[in-house]
Design brief:
- Belongs to the LRR-containing bacterial E3 ligase family.
- This protein is mainly alpha-helical.
- Among the domains are: 180 residues, no CATH class; 68 residues, Methane Monooxygenase Hydroxylase, Chain G, domain 1, CATH 1.20.58.90; 206 residues.
- The chain is 51% helix and 4% strand.
- It has 28 helices and eleven strands.
- A nine-stranded parallel beta sheet has the order 3-4-5-6-7-8-9-10-11.
- Helix 4 links the parallel strand 9 and strand 10.
- The longest helix is centred in the C-terminal third of the chain and has 37 residues.
- The protein is elongated.
Length: 741
Amino acid sequence: MLPVNNNPYQPFQTGLRSARDATSSGNVSHTTTVPLRPDEYYALWSEWEKNAPSGGGERRDIAVARMCACLETDYKELYLAGLRLSSLSERLPPNITLLNVSDNHLCKLPDNLPETVTDIFVSYNELTEIPENLPPGLKELTLESNQLESIPGNLPDTIEALDLADNRLSTLPDHLPDSLLYLFLQNNQLQTIPASLWRLPSEARVFLDGNPFSARTRRRLMDWVQMADYTGPRFFFSMSENRADAPPRPLSEAVKDWLSAQTAESAWAAMEKEDNAAAFSAFLSRLGETQNARENPAFKARVTDWLTRLVETPALRETTFAVAQEATTSCEDRVTLAWNDMQKVALVYDVESGTWDDRLPELMTVGCEMFCLEQLEQAARDKVKTLRFVDEVEVYLAYQTGLRDALRLTSAGERMRYGDVSGVTQEDLDRALVQVREREKRAFPTWLAQWAPWKTALYRASPGFVENMQEQQTGALNDTYRQRVDAELKAAGVEGIADAEVAVGKKVWDEMTGENETALTRAFLQNRYCALMADKRPEQALKAVTELTSVAASAPAVAAMAVRPGNVNEAHPGSLLATRVAAGGMAPLAEAWVSLLHRLYENKYLDKEEVISALLPHKKEHRGGSLAHAIADTAWNSEAATKLCALLSDVAGSDENSRQDIMARLSLKLPGDRFSQLNPDQAADFYKRAKKADKLSRNDAAKAHLKEGRLIPESRELYGMVSGAQTGSLNREARTEALKR
C-alpha cells in the first residue's frame, strides 16, 4: 500500500514548482523542477496507477514499484520497458540518470523530465513529438521506430548520440548540436541532405541507409565528401534504389526462376507457410536480378542444386530462411552477401550432420577459406574507418570479390554491382592479401583447432584419441596454470591486485586452451599420416602424400603442422616414408614428399631447422628413418635425389650454421645404413653417393644442386670446383665447364 497524504487540508502539490535555470547552456531553456516530498511522489504515482485505461493490459503497478525503489534507494536507472504503458507519470524519480521506456505505447514524454537524466531510450513507441524542454546534460537519446515527422531545433548541446531511425522525418532542424558524434537517420523520408548535417564535426558519423535519395544525390554526396578539403562528418549509406516494396511472390512462383515448374509446384507449395518463407521468396527474386545470376550460368546451376537440397533437409531450410529475413533490406550486393552467408550455414550444417567425416582434408581447406573471410572482414572494418562516405556492405564485398581468386574464396560472389563506390583500391586489396597470408601462417592452425566444425569432425573421427589427449592436457593445465599466472603478475608488477589477477588469469587460460587445442589437432594429424605411412598397403602411403599435397595448396599452414617433426625420438610421417623408401619402390612418393617440403619452406611455412629435421637424423641413435639417407642409398638415380639436393642446397645456402648442421647429419651412420662411416672432420659421405650416382646415371642436375649449395667441399675432385665456388655461385659458362669434369 502506497503512503498517502493524510492531511485533508493540505492539497497534493502536483503542479510544477519551477524556476528558470540560469545555468542552462546552448539554445536550451530548461525548467528546474523542485523535487517533491516522498509522500507527494507516492500519492502522485498512486493516482497515475489508478487512472490507467481499462483493457490495455498496462503494468503500471510494476512501473510504480520500480519508481518507488529508485526514490527509496537512490537507484539511478529506471527501466520501464515493455510494460505496455500508454503514458508516464508527470513526475519521475528526481535523481535518475537513465530512463528506458522502450517497447510501450507512448505518444508523448513528460514535459519536465528530471534534469539529472543523461540517457533516454524510447524506441518502439508511438511518439509524434518530443519535448522542447529536454534535460540539459542529456548525452544519448534513442527514438528509433516511432512516428516522428520533426524534431525540435534546440536539442541540448551535450548530446552525443541521437537515434532517429525508422521514423517519418523528411527534414531536420537548421541547427544540430556540435557535440553530436552519432546520428542515426536510417529508413526515414529524407530526399536531400539537410544543410545542418554538413556542419557536424569530422568525428561525427551519420547513418543514412533506407532514405529515398536519388542516384544523383548519392553520387553528388560521394563526390563531395571525397574532396581533399572536406572536413565534415562521415556518411554511411546504402546504394539501394529504395524501390517500393512489392509483396513477395508465393514461394512456389519464386523458385520457378531456378527450377522446373513441376518441381517448384510440387515441392515448394507446402513450404509457403513456414517461418520466413516470404522473406526467402523475396530473396530468391532479388538473387535472380543480380549480375551473377544474369551473367554466370554456373552460378545459376549452383543455386538450382542448392534449392533441391533445401527441399530434402528441413533443418537446413529453416536456418536458411531465417538468414533471408534481412537479405533484401538494402541493395543488390546485400543480397549477394546474404547468399555467401547462406553457404556458410550450409557448411556448418553439413559438418554437424557428419557429411565431412571422411573428407577431413577438404574440411581443412574450407576452414582456411572461412579464416580468410574473417580476416577480410577485419580489413574491411579498418577500411571503413578511413572513408567519409561509406556503404559498409560494398566495402566488405569489395574485399571478398577482389581477392576471390588470389585466396581461392569459392563462397564469395564473382561480381558485385556497386564495386565502384566501395572506396576500396587495388592498393588496399594488395595490402590485405599480404596481411591475410601472413596471418594465415601465424594464426590459422590455432584458429582451425578452435573452429567448432573442425572440433566436431575431429571428435567424430577419433573419439578415443581426442578424449585421451584431453585428459592428459587437463592434468598439465592444472599443473602449470597457476605458475604462468603468477609469473605474468610478477613480471607486470601487479601481484595482489584482484582486477589484474582476473584479467591475467583469463589471458593465460585462453592462451593455454588455444595451445592445447592446437597440440590436439597437430597430434591428430601426425597420428593420421603416420598411420597411413606405416600401413603395409602402398596405396595408403600414396593417400597420405596426395592428401597433404592437396592441403598444402589451400591450407599450407596445416600441412606444415602435419609434416613438422616433433620430438627427435618420435617417428613422423617423413621418417616412416624413409623406411618405405629404404625398402625400395617408393621413389616417386619420396619425390613428391620432398617437393612438398620444398614448397612449404619456400613460402616460409617451415623454417630451415624444421626442414633439416624432416629429412635428416638428429643423432645416430635416432630411431626415426632419414629420408635423405634412404634416397641416397636406394633411389639416387631418381628424380627424388635431384629434388632432395635442390632443397638441401637452398637450406644450406641460407647460413653457414645450416650448412654445417646438414653436413654433420649427413655423416651419421644409421643402423642398417650401407654408408661407410667417415671421421667427423671429413666431408659428408653424401659426396660418395653423388660420386656413385655419377657413375650410374650421370645425374648432372643433382651435381649442380650440390655444387651450388656448396654441400661438397671444393677439395673433392668429383666436381673440380672452380674459383666461382668460393662465393657459392658460378656463372653459366663456369657451371657448364664444371659439370663436364
